[in-house]
Amino acid sequence: MIEIRDVRQVPNDYFRRWFSDDHFDLIVWYKPDDAIQGFELSYDKTGHEKAIRWLDDKGISHFSVDTGEQSPVVNRTPMLTTTEGRSEMERVLASFQASEEGLPGEVSALVQKKLREYGQLDAGKESDSR
């Protein structure tokens, strides 16, 4: 993955870094002490895009990305809708591991850990992987 430089920072929000390749977009938020506050990993960018978001105070969530695009002349804002996807985490993890070059080690390790935890949860339980 490569890091996107000059990422827009949101006032009064955590500092963010953005990494990307053909398969993934990874946004990482940092606390003022440089600890990771959370991340959002978007995957299957060329198909039915989904995203995994982990925040240290909220745990993990899984989303489907609804682009809102039904016309090539209208540009609508993408929206995230909650979805189930624990069963595909093994595939996502393997693909992420093949793409992790260029990421800081602590970022790669955290994302892999959270993907493993989420994938191992029973389908009937809610995630609280903090």
The succession of helices and strands, N to C, reads EEEEEEEHH
Distance between the termini: 25 Å
Give the domain tally.
1
Number of strand elements? 7
Mean pLDDT: 83
Structural class, by secondary structure, is alpha+beta
Strand content: 25-35%
| Contiguous runs where pLDDT drops below 50 for at least 5 residues | 121-129
Strand line-up across the major sheet: 1-2-3-4-5-6-7
Helix content: 10-25%
Question: What is the number of helical segments per DSSP (H or I, 4+ residues)?
Answer: 2
Query: Main beta sheet, described?
Result: 7 strands, antiparallel
How large, in whole angstroms, is the Cα Rg?
A: 15 Å
Brief account:
This protein is an alpha+beta fold and 130 residues long.
Layout of SSEs?
Elements: E1 2-4, E2 15-20, E3 24-30, E4 36-43, E5 50-55, E6 59-66, E7 79-82, H1 89-99, H2 105-120
Antiparallel strand pairs: 1-2, 2-3, 3-4, 4-5, 5-6, 6-7
Helix pairs in contact: 1-2
Characterize the structure shown.
With 130 residues, the chain is of the alpha+beta class. It has one domain. It has two helices and seven strands, in the order βββββββαα. It has helices spanning 89-99, 105-120, and strands at residues 2-4, 15-20, 24-30, 36-43, 50-55, 59-66, 79-82. A seven-stranded antiparallel beta sheet has the order 1-2-3-4-5-6-7, with helices on one face. Helix 1 (89-99) runs antiparallel to helix 2 (105-120).
